[in-house]
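Record type: monomer structure entry
Structure origin: computed from sequence
Chain ID: A
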Amino acid sequence: MTTIDAFRSSVSATTPPPDVGPALQALWWALRGDWNRAHECVQQHEGEPDCDWVHAHLHRQEGDMRNAGGWYQRAGRSVPTLSLQEEWSLLATEMLSRK
């Protein structure tokens, strides 16, 4: 399993780690500040619960709470009260633990 610290550190590379799926790739791009690339990753995998959850997070990050709310609902999640950074860590930690 990749640790959250190793995953965070990997953003110094030019591409996401090769052994992570699209939801984690999107989180990786988001951490690098490339919202559009992150959004592309999850858009290509709509209907996958982890991708829908990250999709929600991305729209929350951009401030589009109406759109975010729909994606949280599709992912079977509640809109979090955590900060964006805390939610990113929660998403990454949970998804890395299942890798």
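Annotation 1: The mean pLDDT is 95.
Annotation 2: Residues 4-97 form one domain.
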